[in-house]
Amino acid sequence: MFDLERLEFQKVLKILSELCLSNYGRDKVRTIRPKDGWEDYELVEETHSLLTRYGIPDIQPVDVRDDLNSMINGYIPNTKSFLNISIFLSSVKKLKEHIERSKDEFPKLWNLFRSVNTLSHLRDIIKNSIDDKGFVKDGASEKLASIRKNKKILESTLRRKLDKLLNQFRNIIQRPYFTKREGRYVLLVKSDRRKEIKGIVVSVSSSGATLYVEPEELIQLNDELKKLEVDEEREINRILENILLEIVKKKNTLLKVIDTFSYFDTLYARANYMIKEKCIVPSINHDGRIVLRRARHPLIPKDKVVPIDVEVGTDFQGLVLTGPNTGGKTVTLKTIGLLTLMAMASIPIPADVGTELSFFD
């Protein structure tokens, strides 16, 4: 049983989490544990080569997990939630295409992304229905386009009539403009001149000095506009429900995309750490042999850490550390232990080439 807490393994994971691209990676990194295997190291090395040679494209891996869970439960958070799913899928698509262009150089990375389905049909539905600000587009359906066209014509007619009424009743209105109350166009009429205009009082100002009056000439037009607004809202809801159904239908594929990207982000963080801290991928054996070359404790500041060389398990099987207090014995042991845990978690270690570590139970 590894003493992860005493060796401060979680602090290494915290450093890695800060190097991730996304919340997906940050959450995934926190679950990394030492294991008897180093398969991830090969992917880490390929990711390191990808970063140093070609970098990665500018992507926006927005976190859609909470909204996706809400959608799976039949709830539509908001149009931005749909848009974020499209942005996330587009980001993964861009990353996949980037890796595909160099798939012969990075076969293991390509194998990771080869089967990832970035749901082009779903992305197109969202893109064609919702604009960048989260507004449902006119072209989302023929019916919505027709409703909004008729609504625009009707509002234009209403405004022309309102302009005439403002001029006609200029002596009895409180302000020389019109407004909307309870979804209906009204004039702001002085309360003591109420009898001089025919219509319905929709509301009254807090002071009582102003009445919001719907002139009788506008009642039918306001009714028609109200109906169009109801029709518009109903059609928007239908469009969003269809997108929701499509997302729920593809939820398993979407969850797989999230899982693949989350894992890639842990590789990215480890490769990024390798670059930033000038780390290496050590040689691995199962014979209990440890060879450290200028190894540094990863949690001690660079300007204070003292590199160490250690070799055990070759010509001799034991090692006795002696010296005064604060002479570095404990740090040496912790360095050996922590670097071993890091290697067992496929995390690059701060040491020089020639370093070799073994896996232990």
Radius of gyration from CA coordinates: 33 Å
Integer average pLDDT: 92
- The overall number of domains is 3
Strand order of the largest sheet: 1-2-4-3
Q: Oligomeric state of the chains?
A: single chain
Structure summarized in a few sentences:
The protein is of the alpha+beta class and 361 residues long.
Q: Which descriptors apply to this entry?
A:
MutS, DNA mismatch repair protein, Chain A, domain 3, 4-stranded antiparallel β-sheet, 3 domains, alpha+beta, two-stranded parallel ribbon, 361 residues, 49% helix
Explained architecture:
By secondary structure, the protein is of the alpha+beta class. It has three domains: 9-119 and 250-276, MutS, DNA mismatch repair protein, Chain A, domain 3, CATH 1.10.1420; 142-231; 283-358, no CATH class. Helices cover 49% and strands 12% of the residues. It contains eleven helices and eight strands. It has helices at 9-17, 23-29, 39-53, 65-72, 79-100, 107-113, 120-129, 142-168, 219-249, 251-276, 329-344; strands at residues 173-181, 184-190, 199-204, 210-215, 283-285, 290-295, 308-312, 356-358. The strands form three sheets. Strands 1-2-4-3 form a four-stranded antiparallel sheet. The protein has a two-stranded parallel ribbon with strand order 5-8. Strand 3 (199-204) and strand 4 form a beta hairpin. Helix 2 crosses helix 10, helix 3 (39-53) packs across helix 10 and helix 8 (142-168) runs antiparallel to helix 9. The mean pLDDT is 92.
